[in-house]
Amino acid sequence: MRALSVDAIAARVPLLWRAVATALLLALGLLALVQQRASILSSGTEIRLRTVPVDPRDLFRGDYVVLAYPISVVDTGKDGAGYTRGETVYVTLRRDGEGFARAAGVSRDRPATSGDMVVIAGRVTSTSACALNDAGEFDCSGDRRRLRIAYGIESYFVPQGEGRAIETTDKARVEVVAAVSASGQAAIKRLLIDGKPVYAEPPY
Predict the structure, then answer these.
(1) C-alpha distances in angstroms, 4 versus 7, 11, 14, 17, 24?
(2) Using CA atoms, how far apart are residues 145 and 56, in angstroms rounded to an integer?
(3) What pTM, to 2 d.p., does this model score?
(4) 5-53 residue pLDDT tens
(5) What is the 3-state secondary structure (H, E, C) of 82-138?
């Protein structure tokens, strides 16, 4: 085998360093994401969420759970014109009589909180010109809007091979306990079925 010349070796060294630097940046980015999630789980404010299956006939797909929540659809009230798909919004949550989080308002800017209020950040996935009015009827006039919002907690992965096992359980009541950071980011901590814990997310 012919030995590499000094010039050839010198030419390859910068490429090697670039590859190493790229790998280090990717690793640091992954570690930062893991640490961010661990911080949310360990220090975030816990909220209880009732869930609404995206498809009641297919709640568990393979090894991850697809979920929606009552707070996934939010009425903007009388001044909701102008919200667009992809926009970041902040939803104010209050606990109802059973301790579950309910949407109490939505805004583009993060509102101040007080008492038992929690603010969760989400992204608008769709808008509708019709919303419920004060009488509980759909109103398609004026500036009322219904926003469908994703919070990053719509999928929950379970250990490989165990997703289908849950599918045979009684799904009369599915509940999620999530943690919400001070900035509004959310992560699922526990999944419960009929009030019984099924999975708990480890910090790391």
Answers:
(1) 8, 11, 16, 18, 27
(2) 26
(3) 0.74
(4) 656 555 555 777 777 777 777 766 665 555 666 678 888 899 999 887 5
(5) CCCCCCEEEEEEEECCCCEEEEEEEECCCCCCCCCCEEEEEEEEEEECCEECCCCCE
